[in-house]
Automatic annotation (TrEMBL):
Molecular function terms from GO: clathrin heavy chain binding; structural molecule activity
Domain of life: Eukaryota
One Pfam family in the UniProt entry: Clathrin_lg_ch
Membrane topology classification: Peripheral membrane protein
Transmembrane segment boundaries: none
Keywords, sorted A to Z: Coated pit, Cytoplasmic vesicle, Membrane
Coiled-coil region: none
Function summary: Clathrin is the major protein of the polyhedral coat of coated pits and vesicles.
Family per record: Belongs to the clathrin light chain family.
Native source organism of the sequence: Podiceps cristatus
Localization in the cell: Cytoplasmic vesicle membrane; Membrane, Coated pit
Protein name: Clathrin light chain
Keyword match Membrane: yes
């Protein structure tokens, strides 16, 4: 015995029938047309959204492919530059590394009093030819003063 559910369903059905009967034909027709238009607009928007997603996925894949291609080209050029770097250790391009390699090679010939000459070989004391972005003038002046007047222990 489902009295509560049956009664509410009956009242809902009756109210709907009353509304349909009391509604003029033009309004009912407009309501149906409006419902069809809205369904059509929803279908078009879903279709357009799917197209946009496909387009976005394609563009993203193309972007990743271009990025990967750039990365591979950069890696290849870095490898070539690296090989050239190590094949020509005393080239002008290398500069500091060549001096550092000479410093390491001369490490066996350590004599007292030659420390600052070895440090001076590593440093570029010409402020205009320095390729560094930072201001190292203070460090340069300290090294020059230490070279000219070494510390006494």
């Amino acid at each position: 015995f489902k009295e509560s559910n049956g009664l509410t369903d009956c009242y809902a059905a009756i109210s709907q029938v009353d509304r349909l009967q009391s509604e003029p034909e033009s309004i009912r027709k407009w309501r149906e047309e409006q419902k069809e238009r809205l369904e059509q607009l929803d279908a078009n928007s879903r279709k357009q959204e799917a197209e946009w997603k496909e387009k976005a996925i394609k563009e993203l894949e193309e972007w990743y492919a271009r990025q990967d291609e750039k990365l591979q080209k950069t890696k290849a050029s870095n490898r070539v530059a690296d090989e050239a770097f190590y094949k020509q250790p005393f080239a002008d391009v290398i500069g500091y590394v060549a001096a550092e390699e000479a410093f390491v090679n001369d490490a066996e010939d350590i004599f007292p009093g030659t420390e600052w000459e070895r440090v001076a070989q590593l440093c570029d004391f010409n402020p205009k030819s320095s390729k560094q972005a930072k201001d190292v003038s203070r460090m340069r002046s300290v090294l020059i003063s230490l070279k000219q007047a070494p510390l006494v222990r």
